[in-house]
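User: Sequence in, structure out. Go.
Assistant: Echoing your sequence, followed by the structure tokens.
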Amino acid sequence: MYFSSTILSDFIEYAKLKSSDTTDLAKQINELQQNKHITYQTMVRTLNLLGKKLNDENLGLHIGEQISLKVTSYVDSIMQYSDTLDDAFENAVEYSKLISDALNCSLHKSEAYYSVIFEENPNWKVQQSHAKKQVLDLTLLSCLKSLVAYTNRNYYPVKIHFENPKPKKLNEYYRLFNCSLYFNQSKTQIVFEKQIFNKYSKRIEPGLLESLKQKVQSEMNNLTTEYKLIHELKKCILNNKPERILIEEASKQLNVSKRTLQRKLKELNTSFKEIENDLKLRLAKTYLEERQKSIDEISYLLGFSESSTFIRFFKSLTGRTPVKYINSYEHAE
């Protein structure tokens, strides 16, 4: 559950571009950039800092538009050294985890269209919606810019499907993507005409791409990933919210028996209840931090029959009531 910490350098560069007074912001961001990777929570915190400083609801779009991202440089190079545009996007999907594991990328090809599909990691899915929006917008625009960079032509998508709700203002989306936009969709995807991918190829010197791939693969090998079973179980639990899925039904959806699921989770030093409670707690914190929902609404969305039950659950895991938690969060900001 990580982002490359290089993205923090991109944020600082953008902040300097947009504001003459970035000393305090740069200091705060630099304090977060201690390791090669940062956590999801650090990414959320950083985007909140940046958004507050620059007062920009379309931060992700504008970062992607106005600076060349250092965090994507390896993947960008691999795409440019690919023989065809089709290969370039295949390679970008394969090595995207070098940047982050927040969004799982996949490709879908039909007779007429070529789609890049993005699915949220369940651990990213429970983070604050504002941060998720900025990261997704930045990713989608980076995807479009990769196409333009390879072809040296100003192509636009046919359409974009967004899993998230429709924003209040769409002007910047239409300006940058110039295509049809659909919100509250089952998955996020950016769709291009397939004929574009059949038109472009390069004559690349043999060995250049493989040499670069080997370097990137060595970086990929050092990444830590969540066990697939836990990952899929989290997706299963979240996909059924606000209803609470029982372990019997989850087992069916994962195509294993209840006993097998319990045994495998025990081998991984966890349990169904522990995973479920971790997700509920993270979602609860996210809803409280966003300040958009009442305690009653949060209780319902997490599957509690009464708000008093939710309050007891939250206090048992944090030592604080939801009200005390949000007060301390606001103070820390």
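User: And one key feature?
Assistant: The two ends are 23 Å apart (CA to CA).
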